[in-house]
Amino acid sequence: MEINNLTRVRIDNRFFEKTVTKLAKLLKIKLPEISLVFLNDKEMKNLNRKYRKRNRLTDVLSFDYGEILICLPQAKRQAKLLNHSLKDELVILLIHGILHLVGYNDETKKDYNKMSKKQKALWQKITS
Questions:
Q1: C or N: which end of the chain has fewer Cβ atoms within 10 Å?
Q2: pTM for the full model?
Q3: Quick one: DSSP state of residue 33?
Q4: Between residues 15 and 93, the one the model is more confident about
């Protein structure tokens, strides 16, 4: 697993590697090599506009070739808003990104609910 930290924040690579391994086992899949990249607001907004044609900030983007991009400042804001740790929020976003990689989407309300339910179940198993 490759982790690119473009935000100058201390990231525990081993923790994320272990989390990805656990998720693969729980999903009963073999994940491709995962590249996890932490970006700032401007970079994430630009990539969301370029690849999803949405001119707004997003918290996580996933690409089929195994790359997951997480907006670290947005994750920090969400963690504060939801009253949990940044580490917890990053794991939630990692789970979300991996679910996209394995075929889940959240474009319709039905798909969003299905993905959200799976994400919560995985989160509970990862943190227990």
A1: C
A2: 0.89
A3: P
A4: 93
